[in-house]
Specification:
CATH architecture of the largest domain in chain B: 3-Layer(aba) Sandwich
Number of strands of chain A: 0
Order of helices and strands of chain B: EEEHEEHHHEHEHEEH
Strand content of chain B: 15-25%
Radius of gyration of chain B: 19 Å
Largest interface: A-B, 27 and 34 residues
Distance between the termini of chain B: 47 Å
Largest sheet of chain A: none
Distance between the termini of chain A: 49 Å
Shape of chain B: globular
Oligomer: heterodimer
CATH architecture of chain A: Orthogonal Bundle
Number of strands of chain B: 9
Strand content of chain A: under 5%
Order of helices and strands of chain A: HHHHHHHHHHH
Largest sheet of chain B: 6 strands, mixed
CATH topology of the largest domain in chain B: Rossmann fold
């Protein structure tokens, strides 16, 4: 086991898990509180279009994914606000359009796309220094924005209309958060993949929601739970030789099940004590 | 009577749909304006224009009171507009009433702290300050949102169906609170159950696409006091109606 931590690829994987847990724990709390889970799914899947184009034109897929997901976030925000189109229909369109564009470009790219699966399901063990640098930058941005704008973010997320009557920059902050969510999703794709990234944004938050009652508490606990499940998932996947992204998701759901079972038992016990 | 603000020939709505046509409405200092009308008649649109949330297609909203220039209006939204699953505590909800403009980079100042303490104390929410919104009763939630609306010491309080927070409609406590507040500030109140608070209302706006304004001469407080009865129903003429006998009569 100690040998494991001598491998640079494993150390990079640990660093990626830590950074992904940090930014997903924070932005995920915002996403879950504002009921933007479906929107996040749309953003993450639409990024596949950028990955496909990157294969065809020969640039780094993460750059393509970033451009597509931020554009998708901007489109959802802009079109649903102005044209009055139902946001969920729009998300459905962009979700499938992104996937379709991606598949077409991958298909017309000559040769075999070697690590396509790694974008769909993640490959934390092949994280490069460049990816880590990007993740660190996005994590820093996330922490910074939440530290500086925490109260405004909280108030606007809770009640946009009231915040408007107080003269808060509602549209600017909402758009900034959506853009940040897109960036967090893109840098986390390397860890668990397009399809599974949604769970990093929702499962730790659901577990934390059982234990904490205010936004800050849920945020901090989500980060810690994300760390616990991604690091233990990483180790388990290494020793059992199974896909790491999927294992990380699986352990985080096990954490959720364990916490909710413990909570139910403790509620029952305290009820029984009160009655008896 | 000094006017706080005034709508003149306002036409407003959403995108391609006009909801209010040519509406004029004065709101006076220490006014108690009841806004009534059918669903879809434009009560909420009227409030949104008053609050500056939507810009009218035509007409003007004139703010006569300089203190309202920075939109220092207290606003209590509808019960159904509140996300009761959101992880936010009573104290944070109340603090958000002081947000605005320069809150970025700034911690809550100590006069603001005191003001929050004061208002939590006044509405009996001190013990509930750490409780999340989802664990409050309707009445507690109503008070929390009232605190949020009042914490900035506004000159005008705008309430959108505050009675919807509790099953029993207008509790006597809300009635007393509003009457008490009305000594100092103006109140604009949308309600289905205007009859229950009618004795306190000074003017009434009936909104149904257009607006009819009824000032206090038509239903003076003395009239209700002389009747010695809480009026539960107010209607215009020519409304077909049926009165059933009381059960047990």
């Amino acid at each position: 086991m100690p040998d494991l931590f001598l491998y640079p690829f494993f150390l990079r994987a640990v660093a990626a898990a830590v950074l992904a847990s940090l930014c997903c724990g924070i932005i995920g709390t915002y996403i879950v509180s504002r009921r933007m889970v479906f929107m996040s799914g749309g953003i993450s899947h639409a990024s596949f279009g950028g990955i496909g184009m990157a294969y065809y034109f020969g640039f780094d897929p993460i750059i393509g994914a970033a451009v597509f997901s931020v554009a998708c976030a901007a489109a959802i925000d802009g079109i649903s606000r102005r044209a009055g189109m139902r946001a969920d229909s729009l998300i459905g369109i962009l979700w499938s359009l992104g996937m379709a564009v991606g598949i077409i470009f991958v298909y017309i790219t000559p040769g075999y796309a070697p690590d396509l699966m790694s974008y769909l399901f993640g490959s934390i063990l092949t994280v490069t220094g460049f990816h880590l640098a990007l993740m660190a930058a996005v994590a820093t941005l996330t922490v910074l924005l939440f530290a500086v704008f925490y109260r405004d973010i909280l108030y606007i997320a809770f009640d946009e209309e009231f915040s408007l009557t107080r003269g808060l920059p509602v549209h600017a902050v909402s758009f900034m958060m959506l853009g940040l969510a897109a960036l967090v999703i893109v840098v986390s794709i390397k860890v668990v993949g397009i399809i599974l990234v949604l769970s990093l944004l929702t499962v730790p938050q659901a577990t934390a929601g059982l234990l904490a009652r205010d936004f800050r508490g849920i945020m901090i606990l989500s980060v810690l739970l994300g760390l616990a499940s991604s690091l233990s998932g990483l180790l388990i996947s290494y020793f059992l030789n199974i896909p790491s992204g999927a294992t990380i998701i699986f352990t985080s759901v096990v954490f959720f099940a364990a916490v909710s079972a413990l909570r139910t038992i403790s509620v029952r016990l305290s009820l029984r004590n009160r009655v008896g | 009577m000094k006017k706080l603000l005034e709508l003149v020939s306002v036409t407003a709505g959403y995108r391609d749909r006009v909801v209010l046509r040519d509406v004029s409405l004065p709101v006076y200092e220490k006014d108690f304006l009841g806004v009534i009308g059918p669903n879809g008649g434009g009560k909420t649109t009227l409030l949104r224009v008053l609050l500056g949330l939507i810009r009218p297609f035509a007409g003007t909203v004139t703010v006569h009171d300089p203190s309202l220039g920075g939109r220092n209006l207290g606003y209590l939204p509808q019960y159904k507009a509140v996300d009761r699953d959101f992880p936010i505590t009573v104290e944070q909800i109340v603090s958000s009433g002081l947000a605005g403009g320069s809150t970025i980079f700034r911690r809550t100042s100590s006069p603001e702290r005191r003001r929050i303490e004061e208002i939590l104390e006044r509405f009996g929410l001190v013990k509930l300050r750490r409780r999340p919104v989802g664990e409050l009763s309707g009445g507690q939630m109503q008070r929390a949102f009232l605190c949020r609306a009042l914490v900035s010491s506004p000159r005008l309080l705008v309430l959108d169906e505050p009675d919807a927070f509790v099953d029993s409609g207008f509790s006597t406590s809300l009635n007393d609170i509003l009457r008490d507040l009305n000594r100092e500030i103006g109140i604009v109140l949308v309600s289905h159950d205007i009859g229950a608070i009618l004795p306190a209302v000074k003017n009434i706006a009936c909104v149904n696409g257009t607006l009819h304004y009824h000032n206090s001469c038509e239903f003076s407080r003395e009239l209700f006091d002389s009747l010695h009865c809480p009026v539960r129903l107010v209607g215009h003429g020519d409304i077909p109606h049926t009165m059933l006998k009381r059960h047990g009569d």
